[in-house]
C-alpha cells in the first residue's frame, strides 16, 4: 500500500502520465478528421448515386468525386442562373439540328427568334472557360450570359447542364475547339428562300419583291421573314429614302470566315439581302454565324438554282449588275467611281463577289453592266497586290452607299444607261481576274 501510494505521489509520474494523455488525445483527433473525410466522401458518393444517369445505373457505374473533377460533377452554377437538368451527353433532337456556340451567336439566335430552338446546353459556371473573344471582358460575358438565360426561360427553352469528366471536351468538340463560353444552343437551320429572280422595284421605298421558286419549303420561318404578297415574297424596306435596294451576290466564296465577315459588314452598312447559289459557296454554318457576330441571324438570305434564269429575269425587272474584280493592268479612261456614281440612286443594284482566289466565274461576265474595283495605291511596290474579299466587300458597299447620298448624286450615267439596253455587256473582258 505504501509502495502504491509512493508511486502515485511520485512527482515524476503525473508528468509522464499527462504526456501519455496528450498523445492519446492527438490520435483521437486525427481519427476523427479521417472519419469526417470518409463521411463527407460517402455523402458525396450517395449524392452522385441519386443524380447519376440511366446509362451509369445500368452499368453499375458511379461518377467518381474527387478534387480534379469537382468543377464538373458538383453543383457549381451561379445562383443567378436558372435551374437545369443534368445530362452526361449531347444528342441531336432532329437530323438537321445545328449547334451554335459563342456568346453572341447564341444571344443573336435567341433575340432574332427565326429558328426553332430545341435546347440550351451549358457548363457549370465555375468551369475554367476561355472567354469568348466577342465578349471583351468577364463583365460583358456575365451580362450576356444572364440575358441568354432570361430569353431562354421566356421562350421556354429546355436548359440542360452537361456534367461529368468529359463535359468540357464535348463542348470543345462541338465548337471545333473554338471559344464557346460554356454555352451551346441546339437549333433548326436558318430559313432561306429559294428564288427565280428579283422582282421589279417601282419606287425607292418599295419593299424588295422576290419571285420564289417552286422548291421553297413550307416553313413558318420563311413565312415570317419573307411575307407573301400575291405571287411574290417581300422583304420590308428599311432603306434611306434616297436609294434603291442593294443586294450582294456571293458566288464561290468558300471560306466560312470570309462569308460571315461579309454578312457582318453588309448588315451593318444596310444591305437588303445576301444571295448565294445552291452549290459552290460556303454554307451557313456555326462557323460562319460566329464570324458574322450573329448578323446571319438577322440578314435575309436568298438562294438560286438557275443562275442564268435569275440574271435574265432580274435584268428584265430593272436590276443592274456589277461584278467586283481586281483592276486591269492597263489604265482605263473611265474612273472606277464613275460606274458607281448615281447607280444606287437610279436603279436597284446587285454587286457580285467571286471566289477568294479566282474571282467571279466567267459565266457571270456577259451579264454584268459594269465591273468595279479598288485601285492599289502602292502600285507594283511590294507583294501585297490584293485585299481580302470581306474587306473589299465592305469598302465597295460603302462606296455605293456614299454615292447614293444627295450631295454626290450626279445625273444618270449615260454609259450605264447604254449598258442597260445591251443584253450582254462585259466592261473589261478580264481574263482570269482575281478577286481582291
UniProtKB/TrEMBL annotation:
<feature type="compositionally biased region" description="Low complexity">
    <location>
        <begin position="71"/>
        <end position="85"/>
    </location>
</feature>
<dbReference type="GO" id="GO:0005739">
    <property type="term" value="C:mitochondrion"/>
</dbReference>
<dbReference type="InterPro" id="IPR029026">
    <property type="entry name" value="tRNA_m1G_MTases_N"/>
</dbReference>
<dbReference type="Pfam" id="PF00588">
    <property type="entry name" value="SpoU_methylase"/>
</dbReference>
<dbReference type="InterPro" id="IPR047182">
    <property type="entry name" value="MRM1"/>
</dbReference>
<dbReference type="GO" id="GO:0016435">
    <property type="term" value="F:rRNA (guanine) methyltransferase activity"/>
</dbReference>
<feature type="compositionally biased region" description="Basic and acidic residues">
    <location>
        <begin position="34"/>
        <end position="46"/>
    </location>
</feature>
<keyword id="KW-0949">S-adenosyl-L-methionine</keyword>
<dbReference type="InterPro" id="IPR029064">
    <property type="entry name" value="Ribosomal_eL30-like_sf"/>
</dbReference>
<dbReference type="InterPro" id="IPR047261">
    <property type="entry name" value="MRM1_MeTrfase_dom"/>
</dbReference>
<comment type="similarity">
    <text>Belongs to the class IV-like SAM-binding methyltransferase superfamily. RNA methyltransferase TrmH family.</text>
</comment>
<feature type="domain" description="tRNA/rRNA methyltransferase SpoU type">
    <location>
        <begin position="246"/>
        <end position="396"/>
    </location>
</feature>
<feature type="region of interest" description="Disordered">
    <location>
        <begin position="34"/>
        <end position="85"/>
    </location>
</feature>
<keyword id="KW-0808">Transferase</keyword>
<feature type="compositionally biased region" description="Basic residues">
    <location>
        <begin position="47"/>
        <end position="59"/>
    </location>
</feature>
<protein>
    <recommendedName>
        <fullName>tRNA/rRNA methyltransferase SpoU type domain-containing protein</fullName>
    </recommendedName>
</protein>
<dbReference type="InterPro" id="IPR029028">
    <property type="entry name" value="Alpha/beta_knot_MTases"/>
</dbReference>
<dbReference type="InterPro" id="IPR001537">
    <property type="entry name" value="SpoU_MeTrfase"/>
</dbReference>
<dbReference type="GO" id="GO:0003723">
    <property type="term" value="F:RNA binding"/>
</dbReference>
<keyword id="KW-0698">rRNA processing</keyword>
<keyword id="KW-0489">Methyltransferase</keyword>
